Amino acid sequence: MYAAGIDSGTQGTKAVIVDYETGRVVGRGYAGHAVINGLPPGHSEQEPETWLEAFRASLEAALKASRIRPAGLVSLGVSGQQHGFVPLDRRGLPIRPAKLWNDTSTIEETGFIIDRLGGKKEFIRKLGLNLAVGFTASKILWLKRHEPGNYRRLSTVLLPHNYLNYYLTGIKHMEYGDASGTGLMDIRSRRWAAEAIEAIDPRLKDMLPALSHPQEPVGFMRAKVARLFGFKRVLVSAGSGDNMMGAIGTGNVQPGICTLSLGTSGTIYSHFDHPFIDPEGEIAAFCGGTGGWLPLLCTMNVTNTTEAIKKLFSLNNRSMEAEALAAPAGSNGLIFLPFLDGERVPALPSAAGVFFGLNRRNFDRANMARAVIEGTILNLGYGFSRMNRLGLVPSEIRATGGGANNKLWLQTAADVFGIPVVTIREKEAAAYGAALQSIWCYLRQHGEKSSISDIVSDRVAKNKIGGYPDQKNAALFRDRQARFNSLWRRLRPEFAGLRQATDR
């Protein structure tokens, strides 16, 4: 038997075909997404039909590569980009393009909703997490304010992965994980939050699907869709957001294991058996795709910084790593604040990047290249330390994303975080996690009460590649982290007052 995992992201859709018994990926497919150009600054949108076309193309390619009989595929799971807003009319058709996770046109609406609930601390107290600009709630209010005609047609609110599930099954559905990123759900009770909904529109409660545990499947694939691929009876699991499915795909389903994703942005998240609340709202207190909770740290600057310095010095990935390895740990005192795109954590939306400590010993390509890599990890180190103070007890980090191919990045992460960092055999963690979740749901439906831990322990394999903390560098990077944290605080508007208090 086989399962399919689909990861519908911002740039494209990835599909994998997975053998039930071994967990081995036997086929892969990919299709890119068309983008909507010419939008005003801060707006980011896609046509939902683009996702459907990419889903069909990527799954067809994966099936062709696998050479399996389509009738042997019995389950499918979908991972999707979080926080998007797919508005449907009464007929179940999209009213307009979907506003995506990186759409920041809703700053005013975000502030309005937070104020209506009594400010940031009250919002966190009532819902368990802070409302970020990218979350779905403010996008709904934006539609009401800016496109009232379209808002009057609104009948159902879905997220991107829910929309794909709706196409597959004809059922409008949400599970705890992706729904926790809407800003409309109390992450502790895992129920829709009436006060947040009423801040937008009391009628909104009737536009939100009922919530379910992620172990409960959505339903079975519609016959019309199944015939396109030669399938018979295919169970469609709940699916979830890409981070939730990435956790499953890296085996991050029990306390202590963390997933580190090193892409354009950086994320660290870990499974909890109980709600994780950050009273300052820096750590996103999401629910997971397994029935647990998945606190998540997100920074905006990782591989975008290395791409910039590679372009500056005409380097490729290999020569970039070679240059960085030519410099010692700590880059001879050079520190890089990697805020090329501002930053989410720490909250520095208008900050810029900084090279600090340039001198005759370190003003060269090697030290600058190494400082860039170290700076991205030190940036994550601030938020990771906060997660530790709030209750995370990490035992191992499992790295994914483009940066996980760089041994120096892995070693630096191990040195800064002080725990082992390993890589996973299957690099497409979100698509793979979606397939594994579907296997979990299928087996439960057929009377096998396997836990999600059982599913991943038998199938998720670690590589030997990774990094282990170098004790001789421990003191060095503790000092670098303290210097890094001191420097970024000087970029905050209120630093003048902070400096005066420190001087006293």
Model description:
The protein is of the alpha/beta class and 504 residues long. The protein folds into 3 domains: 2-238, 2-Layer Sandwich (Nucleotidyltransferase, domain 5); 252-300 and 394-467, ATPase, nucleotide binding domain (Nucleotidyltransferase, domain 5); 303-387 and 471-503, ATPase, nucleotide binding domain (Nucleotidyltransferase, domain 5, 2-Layer Sandwich), CATH 3.30.420.40. The chain is 39% helix and 19% strand. It contains 18 helices and 24 strands. The strands form 7 sheets. Strands 1, 2, 3, 5, 13, 14 and 15 form a 7-stranded mixed sheet that branches. Strand 10 (185-186) and strand 11 form a beta hairpin. Helix 13 (365-389) packs across helix 14. The longest helix is centred in the last third of the chain and has 25 residues, at 365-389. The protein is globular and about 70 Å long. The relative contact order is 0.12. The model is unreliable at 495-504 (pLDDT under 50).
Relevant terms:
single chain; 19% strand; 3 domains; alpha/beta; seven-stranded mixed β-sheet; globular; 504 residues; 18 helices; Nucleotidyltransferase, domain 5
